[in-house]
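lol forgot to send this yesterday, sorry. struct tokens for the thing we talked abt
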């Protein structure tokens, strides 16, 4: 099992940028699919983006694919979510999640699929 620790959240004005980090420890990271989810107050947790730690395509939520980016630091075992052109509706707690990749990309946009979660980091976008 891997342990996930997010950081990088904060308060930013609309149109600004933030970079979130997810440090991954324990387990064999290369076995995992890593994703970012977010949960706004009073709403369900929703998929933002995800990718296998090693290789393969990135899956995106429609709202994220033109404004957000994913990258990895393989040495530091850190999975990043770079967010640009932020909007007030991006305000949420952002979570890093992981699940062992079973060869099938279906269901990876559902929070129910994931077995490991970080504690979350708050992102607040002011108008």
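and heres what i got for the seq, position by position
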């Amino acid at each position: 099992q891997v342990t996930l620790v997010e950081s990088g959240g904060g308060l930013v004005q609309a149109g600004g940028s933030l970079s979130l980090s997810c440090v991954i420890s324990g387990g064999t990271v290369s076995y995992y699919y890593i994703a970012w989810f977010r949960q706004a107050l009073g709403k369900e947790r929703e998929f933002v983006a995800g990718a296998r730690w090693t290789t393969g395509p990135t899956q995106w939520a429609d709202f994220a694919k033109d404004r957000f980016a994913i990258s990895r630091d393989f040495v530091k075992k850190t999975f990043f979510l770079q967010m640009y052109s932020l909007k007030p509706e991006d305000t949420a707690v952002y979570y890093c999640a992981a699940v062992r990749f079973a060869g099938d990309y279906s269901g990876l946009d559902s929070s129910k699929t994931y077995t490991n979660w970080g504690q979350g980091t708050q992102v607040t976008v002011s108008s």
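The CA atoms of residues 16 and 85 lie 5 Å apart. anyway ping me if u want another try
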